[in-house]
Specification:
19 strands; 12 helices; alpha/beta; elongated; binds magnesium ion
């Protein structure tokens, strides 16, 4: 079993992703997409060396990835060219002696060790290997907005990476490129040169991140929990979920003692890993005396935005023996959603008694629980 080297062309600017850094540097679960891709290659026992071809403007970004001691198979990067072929060629020139070379897209971070091994093994045996999957949708050949034909789907496959080659064959294809349009993968260069390329089954999970939606699907969803209790006190207003409710007593606390909003805040902060309400808004800070908890919730919204955390949903329950809260649940959800700047359909508020049991049942106070999910 020959050791393989991996070349990762990562110099593209990814115009389809819109504003912001190139797609290989967008964050996925808190780390750049490219880090995940390199980590998968690093984890493959078949791969001995990894080289990335990067854009000159990305040297600092790449440096923050390559400094990870886990990526110890990673060589110093080469500067890529304006086309994929130029980048792969630059990587190839910087590699000496490898018998098997795999070329892998920078934006396929879910490649498996198994696929890497299968591609490398077929490349070693037959010279050139490409992972591919059958086409499941009907393909149309279109010109000027009109369908020209629908080719036979049974012969069509979607090519993925890593594509594997015996070094000598890839070198030859680069030395004397066959005429034709700019190749979009390395296998097509060998095909044009008349070199047989063998197909190995690809993997559906080996997705190429192309559009912003691909990252949205990939985003991590995290969950947090919040719980809060406040005692009743005569002469205090009762505010729950930002809604003032007629009652002969309210809840006691430093702020408006909105027990429901406090539980929601703690659930959101917990989900996003941002601490808890006591740390953010200390109850001995005069700034928060009597403050509306919806104002605090709006500040939490800003904190969430600062870490690109998007609220997926909140589910909350208020425990109170009296007054009856169910008729106000819709208004509470709307007020909470308003402060968070999200659709009220993403917030659910429920109320329950505790069947006269415990401190809630004895009407000494109220409790609230909330669960929140955020997409990072
Ligand atoms: Mg509280």
């Amino acid at each position: 079993m020959a050791t393989a080297a991996a070349i990762v062309p990562a110099a593209g600017r990814g115009l389809r992703m819109g504003e912001g850094p190139a797609k290989q540097y967008r964050l996925l679960g808190g780390r750049p997409v490219l880090w995940h891709t390199l980590a998968r290659l690093q984890a493959s026992p078949r791969i001995g060396r990894i080289i990335a071809a990067i854009h000159g403007d990305d040297q600092e970004r790449f440096g923050s990835i390559s400094s990870d001691p886990f990526l110890d198979k990673l060589q110093a990067p080469v500067l890529g060219g304006s086309t994929r072929s130029e980048s792969v060629r630059a990587g190839l020139e910087a590699l000496a002696g490898e018998e098997i070379v795999l070329v892998h897209d920078a934006v396929r971070p879910w490649v498996s060790t198994d696929l890497i091994e299968r591609v490398a093994a077929v490349a070693e045996e037959h010279g050139a290997a490409v992972p591919a999957l059958p086409v499941t949708e009907t393909i149309k050949v279109v010109d000027g907005g009109r369908v020209l034909e629908s080719p036979d789907r049974s012969r069509l496959f979607r090519a993925q990476t890593p594509q594997g080659f015996r070094r000598s064959l890839l070198d030859a294809a680069f030395r004397s490129p066959a005429p034709g349009p700019q190749p979009t993968d390395e296998a097509s260069m060998l095909e044009r040169a008349g070199i047989p390329v063998h197909v190995v089954p690809g993997e559906e999970a080996n997705v190429k991140i192309t559009h912003p939606e691909d990252l949205r699907v990939a985003a991590e969803v995290r969950t947090g929990i919040g719980y809060d209790v406040h005692p009743f006190a005569a002469g205090r207003p009762l505010v729950l979920g930002g809604v003032a409710i007629r009652s002969d007593r309210g809840l006691l606390g430093h702020s408006d003692a909105d027990v429901l909003t406090h539980a929601v805040i703690d659930a959101l902060l917990g989900a996003a890993g941002l601490g808890d309400i006591g740390r953010l808004f200390p109850d001995d800070d005069p700034e928060y005396e009597g403050i509306s908890s919806l104002v605090l919730l709006a500040r939490v919204r800003d904190r969430l935005r600062a870490v690109a955390a998007e609220v997926v949903n909140v589910d909350a329950v208020v425990m109170a023996q009296a007054p009856k809260l169910a008729p106000h649940a819709g208004a509470m959800a709307e007020a909470l959603a308003g402060a968070l700047g999200i659709d009220p359909g993403r917030i659910s508020v429920k109320a329950t008694t505790t069947e006269r049991l415990g401190f809630v049942g004895r009407q000494e106070g109220m409790a609230a629980q909330a669960v929140a999910s955020v997409r990072l």
